[in-house]
Amino acid sequence: MIHDRPAGPSGASAARLAADWLALAGGSPAARAAGAELIARWAEPHRRYHTLGHLAAVLAAVDDLAGEAADPAAVRLAAWFHDAVYDGRPGWDEERSAQLAQARLPRCGVPPARVAATARLVRLTAAHDTVAAGDRDGAVLCDADLAVLGRPGYDAYAADIRREYAHVPDGLFRQGRSQVLRRLLAAPRLYRTDRARELWEEHARANMNAELTRLERG
């Protein structure tokens, strides 16, 4: 949900993502159709942050953390689907995205157990603090989704989040965004995997504290 941003939804980045999808899901007609649909969804014009650039960044972060996952393929599939439906309604978006995975992946020949695992992981991204102890795949996906907090490009990320909520008045946005940042900062650990904490924890806390200071100053 809330990622060094790679190139945005350019033709070149879409082509790279399409190749990555086929390597993951196979080259069947159904897999090609599903990949084209996913890329079209991530490139929808109303998106400002949850774009192809975000998808590419989450997939790159999953690659950084793949050694900590029990089923890296399920985590990568979940990354592709986790914001495939995006209308800006927390919880609803993740549920619809999970349902989309359940509808599309069987046609691509993905085994039922991995389809179920993928849908479960997508639903976890609605609230990253629901990952259970010992859930290695959930920890990797949620850490990858939050990698933006500790990577270069944080200011651009924060600006894109504001643009996605352009319909919200400044005062209400500052209040809501500040609450989110304080909740994240209050956690003893932002990231669940050792590798993610090593890579991003310190920078993430510095970035969020700086944004919180700016919000409080109006």
Question: What report would you give on this structure?
Answer:
It is a single chain. The chain has helices at residues 11-25, 29-42, 52-65, 72-81, 92-104, 112-124, 136-145, 154-164, 170-186, 194-216. The protein has a single domain (11-216), classed as Hypothetical protein af1432 (Orthogonal Bundle). Helix 3 (52-65) packs across helix 7 (136-145). It has ten helices and no strands. It is mostly helical and 218 residues long. The radius of gyration is 17 Å and the shape is globular.
What would a concise description of this structure say?
The chain is mostly helical and 218 residues long.
DSSP strand count: 0
What are the secondary-structure elements, in order, as H or E?
HHHHHHHHHH
Low-confidence stretches: 1-10
**Count, helices:** 10
Sketch the major β-sheet: none
- How big a fraction of the residues is strand? under 5%
Please tell me how large the radius of gyration is.
17 Å
Looking at CATH, the homologous superfamily is Hypothetical protein af1432
* Alpha-carbon distance between the two ends: 24 Å
**The CATH topology:** Hypothetical protein af1432
Task: Tell me the name of the CATH class.
Answer: Mainly Alpha
